[in-house]
Design brief:
Layout (H helix, E strand, L loop, with lengths): L4 H9 L2 H23 L4 H17 L1 H14 L3 E5 L2 H14 L4 E4 L3 H6 L1 H6 L4 E4 L2 H9 L15 H12 L8 H18 L2 E4 L3 E3 L4 E6 L3 H7 L3 E7 L3 E2 L2 H15 L7 E5 L7 E7 L3 H5 L15 H5 L1 H6 L10 H11 L16 H5 L6 H14 L5 H14 L2 H17 L2 H5 L4 H5 L10 H9 L5
Parallel strand pairs: 1-10, 2-3, 2-4, 4-7, 5-8, 7-10
Antiparallel strand pairs: 5-6, 6-9
Length: about 450
């Protein structure tokens, strides 16, 4: 049996310095998001509007997808439909191979990661170059993204310098971010110039216009699609929005929630192919209809992939993206992964404190923590949760439901901490606890020290 989230998280947390750095880096982004949101007077109204648009679209998803197809075809695009990842990959490969494509410049796309498109094409002789800087870093390292917005957030600049030295021939020891970015730009420029096709994901598809919208901060989607004559855009069925006016709501929310910017640097609208070229849009279901059919969990399809829930989640920040073992990590990934394969990802709904911070920052107001709790119940009902966990949670629920039992458990816990020997208290099974020996309490309390140094009143 493969390791679950607790085991992978423990491996990440074993490097305490890295775990702390990862935690602080993501909290910095969360704070930027808060400042950006505070500058928008109608922020909560925008969130309400976005949630309402997503709910309305889910109710008429088939209608809006068909409208999108009609309008996209009218503008010269070709629309393909894929039931699952295998059909998606086969369609993309057919489009590329029939046109003799040997190299593809691809901008960021979590859908193609979900479908395993890169290894599929490379096994068939087509080179795929990820042109987003973070994606290129993890591609050179042979790793998947660890975050949907910051794919290489788990790597420090010194590690990236060593990677570029080995793969791109940069000077040994180079760790300056500007110099590393310049090296990547020069490396990717040659890939752009010699690519036979450009490939993008789709942030939004507008049913009213038949256009697809791609949001980037590096301009790599534009470079990758304007030089070649062939553009392949891959989108999940949930990406459609009804009207161009609806798009404005999401664009105001997306960048502020993701990175704390007022807007992404490039918001590119593709309405049909370039002159003399081709635009192919591959629309993928891949289990989304099954989620849509489940009333308890269909709201997770509203996600616009901003990553805000990851940046705020105390579990994700301290356990890293790879501990989730699903293409989308963090709180929303725990929902989507367990919906895709409950048995393989049974530990993910439990990788949460249920603090509700993810709900507070979600731009489309997905009730993530409520759905995680509902998914736990669902897995337990299906007998997927291990018996020992079910028994432990049942016992905990019994204690929490009785005040006298709760108070008695608290007294026993305090007595144990004061009385029992530390090896017995932690036990040989709890290496995590043994590594975190608590320091001796200072002779002076923090409150007294604060009052003494600040000259405040005592009492």
């Amino acid at each position: 049996m493969s390791a679950g989230h607790p085991e992978r998280a423990a491996a990440f947390a074993a490097d305490e310095a890295r775990a702390h750095w990862h935690d602080q880096a993501l909290w910095f982004v969360r704070e930027k998001r808060d400042r950006a949101a505070a500058l928008v007077p109608d922020w909560e109204a925008l969130r309400d509007a976005a949630a309402a648009i997503r709910a309305h679209t889910r109710g008429r998803l088939a209608d809006y997808l068909e409208q999108f197809e009609r309008n996209a075809v009218a503008r010269g695009a070709q629309v393909h439909w894929a039931r699952d990842a295998a059909e998606h990959n086969a369609i993309v490969h057919r489009i590329l191979s029939e046109r003799g494509v040997r190299r593809v410049a691809k901008s960021k796309s979590m859908l193609t990661e979900e479908c395993g498109l890169n290894p599929y094409l490379e096994a068939r002789g087509i080179e795929v170059v990820d042109t987003d800087l973070g994606e290129r870093i993890v591609q050179l390292a042979g790793e998947p993204p660890s975050h949907i917005v910051f794919p290489a957030i788990h790597r420090k600049r010194e590690e990236i310098g060593d990677l570029f030295h080995a793969k791109l021939g940069t000077p040994a020891g180079l760790a300056d971010p500007k110099a590393l970015t310049e090296a990547a730009r020069g490396h990717l420029r040659e890939k752009f110039m010699t690519a036979d096709a450009g490939m993008t994901g789709v942030n939004f598809a507008v049913a009213e216009t038949g256009g697809v919208v791609v949001c980037t901060n590096e301009g790599n989607a534009d470079m990758g699609t304007h030089l070649p004559r062939l553009h392949v855009a891959c989108m999940g069925v949930e990406k459609v929005v009804p009207r161009l006016a609806d798009l404005a709501v999401f664009l105001r929310l997306l960048a502020r929630s993701a990175t704390g910017q007022p807007v992404t640097t490039y918001t590119s609208h593709f309405h049909g192919p370039v002159e003399g070229g081709e635009l192919h849009v591959v629309v993928v279901d891949a289990g989304r209809s099954a989620i849509l059919a489940d009333a308890a969990f269909r709201r997770s399809l509203a996600c616009i992939r901003c990553g805000a829930c990851m940046n705020t989640c105390p579990v994700y920040r301290r356990s890293g993206g790879y501990s989730y073992d699903y293409v989308v990590p963090g709180p929303i990934g725990s929902l989507l992964g367990s919906a895709r394969d409950g048995r393989a990802h049974a530990s993910l709904p439990f990788a949460s404190t249920l603090c509700g911070s993810c709900d507070d920052v979600c731009p489309v107001k997905i009730d993530i923590h409520d759905q995680l709790l509902a998914r736990r119940r669902d897995l337990a009902r299906r007998g997927i949760v291990p018996l020992r966990k079910r028994l432990a949670l049942r016992a905990l629920g019994w204690i929490l439901g009785r005040r006298w039992a709760y108070e008695l458990a608290g007294r026993l816990a305090r007595w144990s901490l004061r009385t029992l020997p530390r090896p017995l208290l932690y036990g040989p099974w709890n290496a995590w606890g043994r590594r975190r020996e608590l320091p001796e309490a200072p002779p002076e309390s923090f409150r007294d020290a604060w009052r003494r140094t600040r000259g405040g009143p005592r009492g």
